[in-house]
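This is your field. Have a critical look at the following sequence-structure pair:

***
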Amino acid sequence: MRGKSVLLIIGGGIAAYKSLELIRALKTRGCGVHAILTQAGTEFVTPLSVASLSGEKVFTDLFSLTDESEMGHIELSRSADLLVVAPATADLMAKLAGGLANDLASTALLATDKPVLMAPAMNVRMWNHPATQRNLAALKKDGVLFVGPNDGEMACGEFGPGRMAEPAEIAAAIEKYFASGGRLNGLRALVTAGPTQEPIDPVRFIANRSSGKQGYAIADALARAGAETTLVSGPVDIAAPTSVRLLKVTTAREMLAACESALPADVAVMTAAVADWRPEVALNSKIKKDAGAKAPAIQMAENPDILATLARHAQRPGLLIGFAAETENVVAYAQAKLKKKGCDWIVANDVSPATGVMGGDRNTVHIVTAGGVEDWPEMQKSEVGTRLAARIADAVRGKAA
């Protein structure tokens, strides 16, 4: 973030004290910080403490003639690379959603031509109130970015969503925005990852060796590019990326339901290794091994085809991308899958045991579209995610975006 600049708007709320640590985290990363402190914010932190950490003058008054001669509110709102509101109170969210501008903070938000990132902080009942949720939806539609809120204990003693994201989380979201250039700002992305587990009985299940690493890397890259990303994940042992909404599932049917709940989406990347079949009946008690008995016969039922279902869905994602994990004839099978499933692209990879792709950190993929095949060299799965996010941005925004 060296050379970048943030205009930090500090709203009124007990979480305002976290803004001081956020300033320190941004300065440590080489990011410049100017700050607007609302009148309510001054009840929790002082202009002196904010100025001491930022190393810059703190702005509070819309009608200060001195400040206007030095840096008018229009220039202030447009001189930074990103506006960050932390804490973003229900009042500040409502003002921006409604187009109100009766103080310096709301005026700067309305006058800016730069992206806005909000870190909401409020009582759980205020967060869940229909008015706040309407404002949230309107702001997201306008392209405002969000980090948090988290679930946790409030200063008022209640517990639930509304706790402001930690300074490290907000700094990471800012860093990812600058790293990506925000080419997918305002878009919604859906990613599936990992295996599914289909129960046989309470202790046994059918699954596969998928680690989820590639799907998680893609979700991370899309979020860094600015997309509001939902990650639907089967059982894996890795942490979810920052700024990604995680929906945990176990079975294929649960994964389909979670995907449908995440619609509409502008982009969907279906990397999960979904079991094609499941036991028709999952027993409620463990199958016992009796001496001399034959192995139990397990009747199988076909699982839903998630990729094909989304391709036919009334809320079909604008760009629908499937994955093909093959052990032979990788490109040919992927081309056939592209036609059969009705998606836009297939990302094909060789998962033969010798490749080490399943569970490993590297991958070699082929991007199969109606226009041809792109063969990518072997690279880290994180780099595959970054390159695929850029390829998606080219498709939905245009290469000049």
Notes: Residues 22 and 168 are 7 Å apart (CA to CA). The chain has 14 helices and 22 strands. The mean pLDDT is 89.
